[in-house]
Amino acid sequence: MHLRKVIALPRLFAAVLAATAALYGAVDTAGMRTIPAGAYAPLVRPAKDAAQVPVAAFLLDACPVTNAEFLAFVTANPKWRRSQVSRLFADESYLGRWADDLTPGPRTPADAPVVDVSWFAARAYARWAGKRLPTTAEWELAAAAGYDQPDGRNEEATRRDLYAWLARPVPAVLPAAGSLRPDFHGVRGLHGLVWEWVDDFNSALVTGESRADAGLERDLFCGAGTVGARDPSDYAAFMRQALRSSLQASNTTTSLGFRCAKSLP
């Protein structure tokens, strides 16, 4: 078969799958895991806010969204291709490591997590897939799990792998999205692959109370943030909060991807 036809077949197949799913409203939850209901204790919170945020049980992708999965999305939605996306919704680095609009290329293997995607693009993908982005509370609740127990914050192996990842530079080629050890819930790579977008990332330094959001709480900023912190030694949580608070919705980076969530009926 002619080489050009061979290359075109995966794109055509992805487009057919995407069109079929859209037509029948199908949502693939086979690759998702159930995260039981629980409570999220914000790292830093104003004194008047509740100490914990209740989180209902939900579904979460077992692995972050891959380049192959995102290719199916941009194939079916041309406005989200690298050359056509509006700069209002993604900066100049959007899908910057892809070879072209419909070719991830050698630096972005099909099974590796997609990165260089904006919050707008991640949210559009999630909606196209019949899902949504997880909230901060949902993501943090899921990420608190260890390998062998639902709360792994004091689990030696979990902490070792987490801080080893934080100390390593981002590799030129990311490993496969499913390559890491599953946690207690069967979820892989919440720590150890890439940072991940959450739906309400821009609430990282606001109060959560709409009447007060116009005037941000001063005790949530800079060094003062550790004064009322739930756990001042939780360096990884501070890193996540700092990243989220520094982002704008159109930003993209080589270490920032996402996964999807879905509410249970």
Question: Could you characterize the architecture of this molecule?
Answer:
- The structure is a single chain.
- The protein has 265 residues and is of the alpha+beta class.
- Helices cover 28% and strands 8% of the residues.
- The strands form 3 sheets. The protein has a 3-stranded antiparallel β-sheet.
- Strand 5, helix 6 (235-246) and strand 6 form a beta-alpha-beta unit.
- Residues 1-10, 12-25 and 206-229 have low confidence and may be disordered.
Give the gist of this structure.
By secondary structure, the protein is of the alpha+beta class. It is built from 6 helices and 7 strands.
Which SSEs are present, and which pair or pack?
Blueprint: H1 3-24, E1 32-35, E2 38-40, E3 53-55, E4 58-61, H2 67-76, H3 119-128, H4 136-143, H5 156-167, E5 195-196, H6 235-246, E6 256-257, E7 261-263
Parallel strand pairs: 5-6
Antiparallel strand pairs: 1-4, 2-3, 4-7
Helix pairs in contact: 1-2
